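Extended Data, panel c. Modelled sequence:
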Amino acid sequence: MHTLEEIYQRQATLEANQDAIEATLETNQDAIEANQATLEANQDAIEARLEAIEQQGASQVPEGMVLIPAGDFVMGDTFGDGYSDELPVHTVTVSAFYMGETEVAKTQWDTVHGWAVTNGYAFENAGLGKAGNHPVHTVSWNDCVKWANARSEKEGLRACYTVGGEVYRTNAVAPEVDRQANGYRLPTEAEWEKAARGGAANLRFPWSDTSTIQHTRANYRADTGSYAYDTSAQDGFHPDYGDGLSNTSPVGTFAPNGYGLYDMAGNLWEWCEDVYVDSYEGTPTDGSAQTSGGSLRVIRGGGWAYSARHVRSAYRHGYLPSHTGRNVGFRVCLGRSR
């Protein structure tokens, strides 16, 4: 049995321990609150940094271009309703690059062309267009490559296409491509198809919500009786743009795809850098261009005179680099890769 004095001592000890526990808890609470404040400050700093990086990245996108992000995509006819040269279906890894949001317009072509012919360039064709805000057409592959070089030099960039180490400015030859240069160039075929698909997978056309096509989405020749995926309201050329000579529509008329690119289906065929071959067997899977195997150059995207089957994202064709026509134009890229 404890004495009264022992009981008082134990009570005092318990109270002292209680005070110590409460003091420790209060100290720990203060530390927790301080840590929370630090975490919140760090989070604010991280979010501010991310926002700054995002804004900086956006400000660095060249005017009139959109960034096509790096990544893998499935290239070719995944529906089985295309042509044999769209096979085999295969995965390609593409590095990030910038692409013109529209086909090169006639006014833009004229500005660079006018500078070029007074600075040592010689073109095979002057280029035609229905109006200044319509895409330029009747331009050969050779002319488009020279124009890309001229625009590069005009803007103080290093030209991509060279012949014997010199900037390609004249004649009709097959130039080398300097991928370390920061100038303009044609897209490779893989870059074009990745860009056309707009980040969506296994769809026929550039938009991400359907695999059908209508005149409300693109400038092409409708033929609803031949293709179930052509659901336009009427057959034939686009009713808003025909004049008997050139049926182009102004660049940027229709809604863009998921990457912000216009007219990746229809309006005009677009030149690509690659040599055309009739199969993907053995072609590059790193997004670079096919450089051998024939004399034709790839065209993509279809045109105003072509059916739904020919304006699918997977469709491909080839022309001689000297070819010109009212259905053929181009857009340019700026490489961040290779």
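Confidence is low (pLDDT under 50) at residues 45-59. This feature is highlighted in the accompanying rendering.
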